Amino acid sequence: MSGQEVILGLRNVQRVYSQPVDLLSRLGGALKGGVKPRSVQAVAGVDLDVMAGEVIGIVGESGCGKSTLGRMLTGILPPSAGEIRYRGRPVAQLSGNARREYELGVQMIFQDPYSSLNPRMRVIDIIGEGPVVHGMIKSGEKEAYVSQLMRKVGLDPSYRYRYPHQFSGGQRQRIGVARALAVKPSVIVCDEAVAALDVSIQAQVLNLFMQLRKEYSLTYFFISHNLGVVSHLSDRVAIMYLGRIVEIADTDTIFSRARHPYTQALIKELPVLRTDRRQFDTIKGELPSPLNPPSGCPFHPRCPFVMERCTRERPMLKPVRFDAAAKVSGASAGLEGIDTGKPHLSACHLDDT
Q1: Does some domain include residue 225?
Q2: How much is the pTM?
Q3: How many domains does the chain have?
């Protein structure tokens, strides 16, 4: 990491989507004493500090709230509750130049490299419009500036007058990277940024991310459902389940000494090249509906280690004891062997037994 400054801080961040009650439902519900709107808590209280220069991976199944969390970090969605801080200042209270600094400083690369680009704009305008509008460059400097950025991300500058549909998927994703870099951000939120690409192109884009991190001292918030991809990029990994972080630690610790049963199940499902036959242990059951989440620990209906306590009491995210976790992971009891300066946190009652 480039320093110990907390560039993004999240405190009990939540996002709730409510479905309004239509007229027919209101009329029918009037006979039953009224109808309440249905609500989904996409993000159910996240506390997290992202350090300057850090790459933090957010992993979880589809519907766990990771993309919603990324959109709140960039200001695309406002949090329903809680607080997001940028360089120590609450984002909701920023205005004027401070607000502009935040909005330019935190950029996003979207999952679909085609639908996130305006099909009616040429690449020179897709990349160069932001810097011109915000006064970073003059209009006459746009062509040279865009050409420089295209070279930086591995694109031929002679293609700058083409439209997005004239590029391949990997090239379009590079255009998205160049567009994010154009306004000189400090943080880039990557929402499944390589999920839609072929495996060979994924490797090229991932290498590009790491190269740009060194050149521009970037902080990455890397959202993915693929633990294998995250392992190559991240300094720390946070595992999300039903809107909450259930485990967070540095990457080596997550992959060698995972504590939470959900994290362990995800790691067991990773494909590994082996000569002997191996049977994969899939996670049992389906992800519960966020409209009706389980009581207690949200993972307990699918957990192989479920206890009676899990069904009634939600575990809090807290530092783990290695000797307790060894009962689950099969590791040797003792002290943590990796010191990253950040605690290894897990939300599981097994750590208390």
Answers
A1: no
A2: 0.85
A3: 1
